[in-house]
Task: inverse folding
């Protein structure tokens, strides 16, 4: 499990645009460190998922409905005899946040018809217990209609919600009501399965100085990448001497290339990612007149 707790790159040659407190993309196919609460104790209707009667959440490879995030946290809400509701909790390890913090994640209801969409809520507390979460209101709730049946990127400003300089735990609760045959079939009446991925908690970018002022639009393609190289495109306002670095989520520099002095204007180049293990990286362009950082996912 790639969990990242407050990493800072203490290097004089560059600064990060944001401080990552926690990240998990579940590519390790593990929920080690998480706390699971299976409050419904129900058995999934799909015989292939029967073991989830004990585990509440697990990690599965998801590729349906345009989901391209690979291994993801997975929960089910369709139970034998349409029993319910689902009440399954996935709680992160402890996350130490600084003065500012934002939470983001990807999610999707897995339902081929689009009708059976899982509902879920997000809670934040200072302890990983049901009692602690029970003292708080959800900071996010899809509502009765459930999550969308297409990949969604969600985010919350934790600073605005009152969380700052403290230890937090984030809980994702599958709270899907059972199918009722007396009601019309459609969103809000029963669920099926739910996936969550790329849980990221990070500090807001520093406002001390605009280090990226010399860079116009900067893109990486493809991103996520599963091949051997990426294409980097950016625009320089002024000519500058640049270095390209790729940094993993432990702060280790895994690639470093001197690009020399580049002229003002549009730039395009290929960069090898051969040898990089699956995970999240930071691609940095570092110059004498500024720097910029972009996130890269390697599959």
Result:
């Amino acid at each position: 499990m790639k969990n990242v707790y407050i990493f800072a790159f203490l290097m004089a040659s560059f600064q990060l645009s944001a401080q990552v407190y926690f990240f998990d993309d579940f590519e390790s196919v593990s929920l080690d460190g998480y706390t699971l609460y299976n409050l419904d104790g129900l058995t999934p209707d799909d015989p292939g998922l029967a073991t989830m009667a004990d585990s509440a959440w697990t990690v599965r490879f998801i590729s349906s409905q345009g989901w391209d995030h690979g291994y993801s946290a997975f929960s089910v809400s369709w139970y034998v005899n349409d029993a319910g509701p689902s009440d399954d909790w996935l709680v992160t390890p402890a996350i130490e946040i600084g003065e500012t913090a934002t939470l983001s994640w990807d999610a999707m209801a897995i339902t081929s018809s689009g009708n059976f969409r899982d509902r879920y809520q997000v809670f934040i507390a200072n302890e990983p217990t049901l009692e602690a979460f029970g003292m708080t209101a959800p900071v996010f709730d899809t509502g009765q209609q459930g999550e969308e049946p297409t990949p969604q990127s969600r985010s919350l400003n934790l600073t605005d919600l009152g969380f700052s300089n403290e230890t937090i735990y984030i809980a994702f609760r599958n709270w899907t009501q059972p199918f009722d045959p007396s009601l019309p079939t459609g969103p809000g009446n029963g669920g099926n399965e739910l996936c969550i991925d790329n849980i990221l908690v990070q500090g807001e970018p520093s406002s001390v100085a605009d280090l990226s002022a010399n860079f116009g639009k900067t893109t990486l393609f493809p991103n996520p990448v599963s091949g051997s190289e990426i294409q980097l495109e950016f625009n320089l306002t002024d000519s500058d001497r640049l270095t390209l670095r790729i940094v993993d989520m432990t702060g280790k520099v895994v690639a470093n290339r001197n690009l020399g002095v580049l002229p003002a204007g549009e730039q395009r180049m290929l960069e090898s990612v051969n040898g990089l293990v699956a995970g999240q990286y930071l691609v940095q362009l570092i110059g004498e007149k500024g720097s910029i950082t972009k996130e890269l996912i390697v599959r």
